[in-house]
Design a protein that fits this description.
With 294 residues, the protein is of the alpha+beta class. 47% of the residues lie in helices and 16% in strands. It has 11 helices and 8 strands. The strands form 2 sheets. It has a 6-stranded antiparallel sheet. Helix 2 crosses helix 4 and helix 6 packs antiparallel against helix 11.
């Protein structure tokens, strides 16, 4: 993001630079809402200026602030502005009350019921993965390697590894390099080459396997799912004691995980489509909505 910010210099002397703090916040949030209505392709600067009613220097200044916060990012090829990673993270974390977690709960319960083992919903937070929910199965012997709220570097654990493997190669390399120090200190079984090998294996077989590398007796299988615009959103995973994770059962659980990720992706696509649908013409539309939909 730094190179994009350098190519969008701040205009501290431009009109709007002296806005009051609350007015600037209101306008920045308005831009964020405007950009969020086009989650897939984003919006060009000119369209944001036109739809917001603000002048270009003010829009550029506010976009820079949103980019620094990770709420907005600029696509290098099209130069369009879209929601940033932090916006997705905040939205997903808010899903403990509504949204992603609610949408994922049916799948988590099915996985726990059909496997009798524990299922998990994991989301990405920059270089880390966070366990958003743990759904207990009925099998009497359970694994306690992962609890709700636990955070691990990407690649550590089945859901976390599934997320890492779903990223583009450049992002995988960046994440592994950035986490090298913490991996060496706290997760010595997860060296950089080991992670890269496991990413390749995950992509080849269609699901991630953690063969007891976090806790020796706890094995996990994970599969990632994406937002409609292709971003990696998170992963479902199932964990059990090692005696319940022979290769045939790994494949069986992997198929169940792929089924549930496909269902969740379809639900997410429906939500995104409904949010982008034009509102009924019942009167004057707000400035942020009065623009072409294509």
């Amino acid at each position: 993001m730094d190179f994009l910010e350098e190519r969008l210099p701040q205009h501290s002397s431009a009109p709007g630079a002296g806005l009051s703090g609350s007015q600037s916040v209101d306008r920045a949030l308005g831009l964020l809402s405007l950009i969020g209505r086009e989650p897939a392709q984003g919006l060009p600067l000119g369209e944001i200026v036109s739809a917001s009613g603000l002048n270009k220097p003010t829009v550029r200044r506010l976009l820079l602030a949103l980019m620094r916060a990770g709420l907005v990012e600029q696509e290098p090829q099209t130069r369009h502005y879209g929601l940033g990673e932090e916006a997705f993270v905040l939205g997903v974390l808010a899903a403990r009350r509504h949204g992603l977690l609610e949408m994922a709960m049916e799948g988590l319960r099915r996985l726990a019921q059909e496997t009798q083992d524990t299922s998990f919903l994991t989301i990405r937070r920059d270089r880390y993965a966070v366990c958003l929910h743990r759904e207990e199965g009925s099998y009497p012997v359970r694994t306690h390697a992962l609890q709700t709220g636990d955070q691990h570097p990407l690649g550590v654990g089945a859901g976390s590894l599934a997320i890492l493997a779903a990223l583009p190669d450049d992002d995988v390399d960046r994440v592994v390099a950035s986490n090298a120090a913490v991996l060496a200190e706290r997760y010595p079984a997860f060296g950089p080459q080991t992670l890269l090998d496991e990413v390749a294996a995950t992509r080849a077989q269609g699901f991630a396997v953690n063969p007891g590398r976090v806790v020796a007796s706890s094995w996990g299988i994970g599969a990632a799912f994406r937002y409609p615009d292709g971003r990696v959103a998170g992963a479902f995973s199932v964990a059990a004691i090692d005696s319940r994770m022979a290769p045939p059962r790994q494949a069986e659980i992997g198929a169940l995980l792929r089924r549930e990720t496909a269902r969740l992706e379809a639900s997410l696509a429906g939500i995104f489509r409904s949010k982008r649908a034009p509102a009924p013409a019942t009167g004057a539309a707000p400035v942020a909505l009065a623009r072409r939909s294509g």
